[in-house]
Amino acid sequence: MCPSGIMIWIGKAIFLIFELFVSILQFNLLIAMMTRTYETIFRTRKEYKRQWAQVILMLELSLAPKDRLMYLLEYSRPTGTNKKLRSLVVNKNIYHNKDPEEIARSKEEKAKKVIEERKALLKRRLKVCGIHWYFLVGLS
């Protein structure tokens, strides 16, 4: 043991400061590791999508046009009301980490957009037939 009482307290204080700094350093290291893991996962997802698109492209280039169209109809879906526009379907929850109010608002906006697209399509079809669309819809 140390004969001087003040040296005991100085030793305890230095040890306490050391432990505090080590704890803070470990916490910062944990945050850095989690951030790096998140960034790696994000880059991996993007790379997966890029490679998947490249595989599809290479397969399409190796097929005859008739077969290519058949496979295109299998892995894609029509976009909106125009059945000629097709897109690759990716299942992803777009409402993740959103408030219920934001979800409801975005669903309403999407429904309005679909209704407007359908009205525009109906308008074009009826215009071709020579019928005024607002008589059928009930608008003046």
Mean pLDDT: 81
The level of helicity is: over 70%
Number of DSSP helices?
A: 4
Strands, total number: 2
CA-CA gap between termini = 99 Å
Main sheet summary:
2 strands, antiparallel
What are the segments in which pLDDT stays under 50 over at least 5 consecutive residues? none
Rg result: 31 Å
Percent strand equals 5-15%
Structural class: mainly alpha
Compressed to H and E, one letter per element, the order equals HHEEHH
Strand order of the largest sheet: 1-2
The geometry reads as: elongated
Structure summary:
The protein has 140 residues and is mainly α. It has helices at residues 5-62, 65-75, 100-129, 133-137, and strands at residues 76-79, 82-88.
Structure characterization notes:
This protein is mainly α and 140 residues long. The protein has a domain at 93-140. Helices cover 74% and strands 8% of the residues. It is built from 4 helices and 2 strands, in the order H-H-E-E-H-H. The chain has helices at residues 5-62, 65-75, 100-129, 133-137; strands spanning 76-79, 82-88. The longest helix is centred in the first third of the chain and has 58 residues, at 5-62. The radius of gyration is 31 Å and the shape is elongated. The relative contact order is 0.04. The mean pLDDT is 81.
